[in-house]
Every structure is written in C-alpha cells, then in structure tokens.
Design brief:
The complex is a heterodimer of chains A (about 240) and B (about 220). Chain A is about 40% helix and about 25% strand. With about 240 residues, chain A is of the alpha/beta class. Chain B has nine helices and no strands. Chain B is elongated. Classes of the chains: A alpha/beta (about 240), B mainly alpha (about 220).
C-alpha cells in the first residue's frame, strides 16, 4: 500500500504539491491526469524518494520514504519507475540493460539475471532483440525495454511518468498495450498520463491534479461521466 | 648555392641508437600519460567537488597547462624549481612538465565528457536501486570513457612529440636528444633529423592506429 499524507513540495518559490492526500491499495491501478505543472510527475519522483519533500509523509508498506533511517536503495527495488524519456543505457545491449540491476543491485548470478531479463523482455515483446544495442530500437521498443528493466527487479509497485508522451503517435499503442497487460496481471500501478482512453479503460480510479492540488479522484465511469470540479470539466472538454 | 651532399650511411648506421632513443621517448610519453590521467581524474573531482579552494586550484592548473607553452612548463620543472632548491634531472623534469601539461588537457577532456552524459542516466540507475557510486561506475563512467577516449589518444600523440622539448633541458637519451648529439658530432643535420622525424611519425601513427583498433573493440555501440 502506498500512503501519501499531506505532502507538500516546493521548487524555490513555486509550490508544486500543496498538501496531497492519497492512498493506493495493493493491486490497484491509479491513473493521474492534469495539465503540465500540475505536480503529477513530481509526485511520482517523490514516491520513490528521487525528490525530497518539504512536509507530510509518504509510506510504502508502512516504511516512511523520506525518513532518515530508510534505506532508499533498498526501497527502490520494490518501486519501479519508468520515465517519459526512456533512458536506455546506450553502452549496453538490450539484455544487458535489463540484467544490470538484478546482477549488480540484487547480486544474482549472471545466468539467473539473464534468465530473468530474457523472460521480461519476451513479456514486453522484445525477445528477438536481446543482443542489439538500444540505438537500433525504435522509441516504443526502447520504452518497452525500460519497462522490462524495471520489472526485472520484481517490484511490488510500478510508477509510469508520461511514458508515451515522447513517442511518435504510431508507437504509443504498443507501449499502452504493455501497460494494459501489466494492469491485467494485477500489478499495482500509478500512471501519469495524457491518454484519456487508456485511463478510462484500465484504471480502478482516476485522479485529476490542478496546480498542485488533487481536485478529484473517482472510478473512471464517474470521473469521466460526471466530473464535479469545474477545472476538471474544463480540462476534459479541452482534451476531448 | 646548393652544395650539400646527402650522406645517409651515417644516419642508417646510427639507426639502432635512434631506436633505443625512441624507446625512451615512448616510455616518457606513456608514463606522462599515466600520471596525467591520475592527476586529471583528481582535478576533475576537485572541480566538481563544490569546494571553492579545491575547485580554484584545479581551475588554475587547467588554465596554466592549456594556455602557456609546453616548453615553459618543462623549463619551470627543470630551472624554475631550482630556485626553490628542488633540482630535478632532465628525465624527471621532462616527465613532470609533460605530465603537468597532459593533466590540464585531460582534465578538461574528462569534464566535457562528464557533462555530455545526461543526469537522467544517473537518475535511471538510482531508480533501479543503485547507490550513487555504483550508478556512476556502471552507467556514467563507461559512456564517459568512450567520449574521452579519442581526444585522450590525441593527447598521447602530443605527449610523444612534446618529449622532443627535452633537449632544451639537457635530455640526451631520448630520440630527440640522441639525434641532436649525433648531429652535433657529424653535422649531418638533414639526414639525422629526417630519420628521427620518420621515427616520430611512425610511433605517432602506430599509437593512433592502435587506439582506433582498441576503440573499435571496446565501444561497439
């Protein structure tokens, strides 16, 4: 369970998270939508401790992320994150990209790490691309590789930060299909996205962020069918 | 007008001695590179440390090494340090001067290479549970090496050629020193210097080609 309690965060003068309260249960798929600068991406990087917070608490299975005593490196093994920019490691082949953390962080033997990598890459449809370098892959393939790389750590939670925003339109579908598959398999996920159709289909709940405030959170039917906040109504009519 | 008669025999007979000198040249160049790389890594660390004093020292080193003649740097090591009671042999002062120069250029090269790797690479590593040092070692460093490698081989060639400045501080066992000595005894200036130039050229070319082959093997992406 991910518990976010009254989290505030500023970059200099700009407060990007103005007291967020949110709980994500095991097995739940939460999508987060909102305009740019709404704080939704910042929230993700706070959840896995890449960004510090100013006040409030974030708990993952009861462990406080920003407590001094928390071993963030250990905690991050449980929480995978995939970014808008897929960040392939260019000097490693596809299979090496995915093997790296299981080998070096979890300390698994090479053969075992490779087996995990092959399994995850096949899972996201890259079983044929094991030994090529990322530069030979399309954006969609690189993004799926990044997903496999995060999955290879067997995380309990996955955070997706606008993973389709930097892709050519014709490549968005293959990445969303991968996310749908994970959702069906019961992965606990928080997806920050601009893909409304996807949000409607896969989410258990959808949240709307606006200027650092979570203005609305509801199951998709209600969220899209009967939006209450005027800001959300405006946002939805602009994106439809 | 033109009344110089070429006599190549003497030069060819001296070839074994010239090659012995070439070995010393290569040795100084290699050592100066090794020392230069170690210092350059330290200088790069100092510049990125955020510590004002360390960073200023490193910046000064890089500025002086890159913006003053290599000849003066070697002079300083040999005659300049003498003013402080430190007397280095020609070999040591030549080595120190070139290592000083190498460190300055390489530090700038390393810093550029480091800046070329986006922070998001480190971030991706950190998000997989890597501590900062591990993310640096496994992700940033290999990419940095590739970017820094070819400019570093240029510096190696430059180091080989710089060793010839040793004659000005009395160095007489390297290729330039031996050439100069043979020239002084025989006055076959053109023959000896042409021969030495060909040897310098071949060493420099061999280093460049070896580096290219090595890069091709190491950096397959």
């Amino acid at each position: 369970m991910i518990e976010i309690q009254n989290v505030r965060k500023s970059f200099g003068q700009l407060e990007v998270l103005k007291g967020i309260d949110l709980t994500v249960n095991k097995g739940e798929v939460l999508t987060v939508i909102g305009g740019s600068g709404s704080g939704k991406s910042t929230l993700l990087t706070c959840i896995n401790g890449l960004e510090p917070i100013d006040s409030g608490r974030i708990l993952i299975d009861g462990t406080e992320v920003h407590a001094k005593s928390t071993d963030l490196n250990k905690l991050r093994r449980k929480v995978g994150i995939v970014f808008q920019q897929w960040n392939a490691f260019p000097h490693l082949t596809v299979v090496e990209n995915v093997m790296l953390a299981p080998r070096k962080v979890l300390g698994l033997p090479k053969a075992e790490a490779r087996a995990i990598a092959v399994k995850q890459l096949s899972h996201v449809g890259l079983g044929e691309k094991l030994d090529v370098y990322p530069s030979r892959l399309s954006g969609g393939q690189q993004q799926r590789m990044a997903i496999a790389r995060a999955l290879a750590m067997s995380p309990d939670y996955m955070l997706f930060d606008e993973v389709t925003s930097a892709l050519d339109p014709q490549l968005v579908g293959e990445v969303l299909d991968t996310l749908r598959m994970l959702a069906r398999e019961g992965m606990t996920m928080i997806c920050v996205t601009h893909e409304m159709k996807f949000a409607r289909e896969v989410s258990d709940r959808v949240a709307f962020f606006h200027q650092g405030v979570m203005m609305e959170i509801a199951p998709p039917a209600e969220f899209f069918g009967n939006p209450r906040a005027p800001e959300l109504q405006k946002f939805l009519s602009a994106t439809h | 007008m033109f009344n110089y008669t070429f006599r190549w025999n003497q030069a060819f007979n001296a070839l074994p001695r010239l090659l012995e000198g070439a070995l010393v040249t290569l040795e100084i160049a290699l050592l100066s590179m090794l020392i230069g790389i170690v210092i350059a890594i330290l200088l790069t660390g100092c510049r990125l440390s955020g510590n004002r004093v360390l960073s200023a020292i490193a910046r000064t080193w890089v500025e002086v090494a890159r913006n003053t003649p290599a000849l003066f740097q070697i002079y300083m090591a040999h005659f300049g340090l003498g003013a402080f009671g430190i007397h280095l042999s020609p070999y040591t002062s030549l080595l120190a001067g070139i290592a000083f120069n190498n460190a300055g250029y390489l530090a700038e090269n390393f810093r550029g290479a480091l800046k070329a790797i986006p922070d998001t690479q480190t971030r991706a590593g950190r998000s997989l549970g890597m501590p900062p040092i591990q993310a640096f070692r496994l992700i940033v460093m290999p990419q940095m090496l590739r970017i820094a490698f070819l400019p570093a081989t240029n510096q190696m060639v430059w180091a080989i050629l710089m060793t010839s400045l040793g004659v000005t501080v009395g160095m007489n066992t390297d290729l330039a020193g031996i050439t100069q000595e043979l020239n002084a005894r025989s006055f076959r200036t053109f023959e000896f210097f042409a021969m030495a130039a060909v040897i310098y050229y071949l060493i420099a070319k061999a280093v460049t080609l070896a580096a290219r082959a090595l890069a091709w093997r190491m950096f397959r992406y």
